[in-house]
Structure formats: structure tokens, C-alpha cells
Amino acid sequence: MSKNMPIEGASAGWIGVALGLIEAGEDVVLVTVTATKGSSPRDHGTQMLITATDIWQTIGGGAVEFDVMARARKMLGDPAPDMWQRQHFTVILGPDMGQCCGGQMSLLLEKFTAKEAVDLAVLKTATDAGAGLSHPLSAGMALQVYTPALRSEAALFHLPALPRQTPLFIYGAGHVARALVPRLGGLGFEIFLVDIDQSRFPDRLDGAAQMLLAKSPETIALHAPEAAVHLVMTHSHALDEAICLQLLTRGDFAFLGLIGSKTKRARFVSRLGAAGIGPAMLDLLTCPIGIDEINGKSPAHVALSIAAQLAIWQELRDAEA
Questions:
Q1: What angle do CA 40, 59, 88 make, to 5 degrees?
Q2: pTM score, whole prediction
Q3: pLDDT tens-digit readout, 24-34
Q4: What is the C-alpha separation between 109 and 280, in angstroms, rounded?
Q5: Within this chain, do residues 73 and 135 fall inside the same structural domain, yes or no?
Q6: Do 225 and 204 belong to one domain?
Q7: 118 and 82 fall within a common domain
Q8: What is the mean pLDDT of residues 23-52?
Q9: Residues 108-139: pLDDT tens digits?
Q10: Is residue 5 in some structural domain?
Q11: Per the CB 3.0–4.6 Å rule, which of 32, 145, 186, 300 could disulfide with 108?
């Protein structure tokens, strides 16, 4: 995603992003993969947004995506006043598209402007409450909330309700946190960046995370939702310890990572054990965080290592579900 694309509301999916763009005066095209056959770069249901100058997310495929972007921008340049403009077509991923995978993708392009904004806002309220959407495959029909009665309608593409995003709290807005936030995009996290000093936050996060200013970050840890992910990387070992103590005392987190070395882990385990945390809970403290295969010390390397670990953790969690 380009750094210029506003993503306020991204935790609610593409509708929140589209509404932000429309409010800023830009029309937008939503691209949805409605079907695949054989080998394809992304699965059906994958979506991206395209404006005249930018994109949000990707459908993959290199040459295919560039062709889709060109089609979308031609739609954006069409001054036709009609609402709910659409195109639905199938692309063969063969030599003519510069692809060698041999599959095919069916793609739906939907143009949204200020004329559809009120309807999109209503749909966003529904999706925020857990509803799915049904996308008509032809022009002129309104996007609508999915109901079982629509299941047999062949001219609609149904998408289930958005999976709820996992809350992820990053304690400490230092160099690693700043490098990490953009690397977590698309992984299904609702990110909260916590620090004690306003000056530590980056000037802008483009909506990728919410900034929480807290004199006592351990209080944030106390009131965080159950099954959240927590990454502790503040400027202070004492503050790190206070946050870890709070979380390990609660014990209802999904993942707890502490930045540092094996020596730091040993020191924290000793001190947290003395504070009453049992061995079973201490085993849930991941420190150092990151994967062994990426061991560079720069913020970029550390951030990439942590993001990779979280992606692996997600896959293992989902496989066990």
C-alpha cells in the first residue's frame, strides 16, 4: 500500500477505506476476485481498492494486476452519472498476460463515488456488526447485506462477514515499533501503539495504528481485551517488567512477546517468579521475540523478524482451531 493512501477505518475492511477516500474527494474502484481455477496468485474473495493515483491491498499477479489497474482507472475517468457501475470478466493467466501459472481468475470491478457514499455508510454499520455482503455482478444494482434468501441468486457474489481483527498492543513507540507497524499490514491485527510520551510517537501513522498516550502503560495492559497480542519494547526495563507482570498476572492474552536477549529473559523470569508468577505462565513469555533465521540488529531487521514470527504464530493458531 502506498504511504499516501489513507486507511482510516481499515480495521472494518475496504468500506471504511473507500469512505475515507470518497470524503477526501476521490472516486474509487473495488476489485474482488470472484472465482479462480487452477493456479492463481490469490484466492477468491481477495480485494483491493484503486484510485486514480494509488492502491490499497493487492490481488497479486503482476501483469494481471497492472491490467486491472488500467481497467479501473478507465472506469474512474468515465464521467457517466450512473450509480453502481461494474465490470465482471475472466482473465486467463497464460502467455498473453505474461503469466506461466496456467490458471484463471474472474474479477469484479465496482466503482464508488459520492453518490454511493450514504449507502456505503449504512453497509459499513452492518459489516461492523458482523454482516456479510452480496455483490451484484452487473451494473445498476445496489450492493447489499447478505441474507440466506440471496444464496441461490447466481448474479450475486457473496462474501462472508469480515473476520474480527486481533487486538495487538505495542508498548513503546521507538525505532523498532515504527518499523514494525507498516510490516503488520494485512495480517489481521488492530494495532495500538502505546507510549508514555507524546513526542515518541511518529508524526503520522496513516491510520495503520491507533496511538495511546498513557502515563502507566501497565494500566492499558490491565484493561486490554482478552486474547490480545502484546509486544513489549519500551525504553525502560522497569516499565517492560511492570507491563509483563500485569499481563502474566491476568493470563488471558493470546501472545506475549518481550524484546531483548536471552540474558534479559533470564533476569525477567527470575524477577517475575519472585513476584509470584508461576513457571507455567513464565513459559508463555516469548523473549527474545523474532525468528532465529533473521538475526540482524537494525530496526528494519528486528521488525521483519517479529512480523514473520507473528505470521507463523497465526498459521499455527489457525491450524489448531
A1: 85
A2: 0.60
A3: 999 999 999 99
A4: 51
A5: yes
A6: yes
A7: yes
A8: 89
A9: 999 999 999 999 999 999 988 888 899 999 99
A10: no
A11: 32
